[in-house]
Amino acid sequence: MTTTQLPQLWVEFAYKAHQVEGVKWLFEQEKKTPSGGIVCDEMGLGKTIQMLALLKMESNTSTLLIAPLAVLSQWEDTAKRCGISTLRPKITKLHREWKSDGKFRPLAPKLYIIGYEMARNSPQFLTMVEWTRIICDEAHRLASKTSALSSMVSTIRAQSKWFLTATPIVNSTKDIVNLLTLIGVNVSKNPAELLPIVHEYVMARSMVSLRNIAGVSAPPRPEIHREVLPFTSDEEAEFYKGMTGIIVKHWKALDDEVGGSNALLKLRLFMRLRQLSVHPQVYIHARRASNPTQERPDWSGSSTKFDAILRLLKEPRSEKPHKWIIFCHFHAEMELLKKILEDSMLVGRVFLYNGTLGDSERKLVIAATHESSTTTDVLLIQLQSGGVGLNLQHFDRIIFTGPWWTSALMEQAVGRAVRIGQAEVVHVYHLVLKEEEALNIDQYMMNKAEQKGSLCREILSSAWAGPRDLEAKKN
């Protein structure tokens, strides 16, 4: 298959070299039994484009796409641009049907688009027919064999099954084994036999591996900064140390115990630590929400991390103002930070993107960030709801107010801006309190995240990664 044999997606579209090879690999995979695979290309390399090119290689097919709510419109808009007919579900108590809200071409490839939550709640709607293929985007959501989503996907009949995720391992190798099992691949429990299967059924390319290949316009490497922060006030230091002392004491009391309930209690304690590290008022707000009898007064001062954010926003400006993404954890944190940023006069526009927004509201927020501006703009994103699927390459500065316990989610978040088409060097700032570094609990969680990230990279090093593998298979 040559480049000229690939379908033209739209008039001005031109494939990147790695996308040509990727589509060829997808095409060959669908000739296999079982048919399909796992696409683990790094964020920003065009997994969506490659999958839609595969759809366009054959007319009058029916492909089911299951994806997070945040990316449904992105898939739909790109598919329509490619000349693919798109349909969304319309489900009532009495009736279920697929409806197209655009130009419907009966003989064109058809993409049936549904979110994970709706798919989980209406599985019968998806199992009535056999699909040409099923595509699950951000498929690490299916990693757990016992999850409701994984069980639901296992009941859907499709000639080919595709799973898209840059991070197929969230906790252990069992995650990628489960995805391979959903395809229909028989995976042995022997770890030595896993790597050849990964090479056959997993495609994984990274920005680093493609930078020196002709025809690939990879973005500049991001610059990563770790800001270790001493407290900016004695009041915050005293409050933080007092509260963390109580939390750590409770943690140690649970440390030698086992059971799901204790694990949940530990998670709550860890979230309290994270709230404390961001801003004392975020912690106070959370405690009041869980215990209305709490009488602690509001925090009147600032916080060390918020002070650091304001300092970073004051950095010398280039010819054009920077656009900043700040990844947050909590709604209260986002609302408080939004007010402080607006009052600071350092920024022009502040946008909120979190799990409370509907699909249309999310589209409006992202569209507004694309509008031309002569001021510094800030997009506050809740990491859990905006760390995946979004194309934010018009931003060139990223701040994390605290670490997450899987490196996968943070890597995906950075990938929203560091992707093909990004011309600027993206600067990424990780804010860590100096006191946090001394906490064994926090260090334990961060070490776990790094261990999981290393395991994922080790397994993916055996995946198919380029044309040399393709030539080797032919020979």
Give a written overview of the molecule.
The protein is of the alpha/beta class. It folds into two domains: 3-217 and 457-474, Tandem AAA-ATPase domain (Rossmann fold, 3-Layer(aba) Sandwich), CATH 3.40.50.10810; 223-236 and 304-438, Rossmann fold, CATH 3.40.50. It is 43% helix and 16% strand. The protein has helices at 17-29, 47-56, 69-81, 116-121, 148-154, 174-183, 194-201, 207-210, 234-255, 260-278, 280-290, 304-313, 331-344, 359-370, 383-386, 407-414, 434-438, 440-460, 467-474; strands at 36-39, 62-67, 85-91, 96-99, 110-115, 131-137, 158-164, 202-203, 223-229, 323-328, 349-353, 377-382, 397-400, 427-433. The strands form two sheets. The chain has an eight-stranded mixed sheet, sandwiched between helices. The longest helix is centred in the middle third of the chain and has 22 residues, at 234-255. It is globular. The two termini are 16 Å apart. Residues 470-475 have low confidence and may be disordered.
Briefly, what is this?
By secondary structure, the protein is α/β, with parallel strands linked by helices. The chain folds into 2 domains: about 5-215 and about 455-475, 3-Layer(aba) Sandwich (Rossmann fold), CATH 3.40.50; about 225-235 and about 305-440, P-loop containing nucleotide triphosphate hydrolases (Rossmann fold).
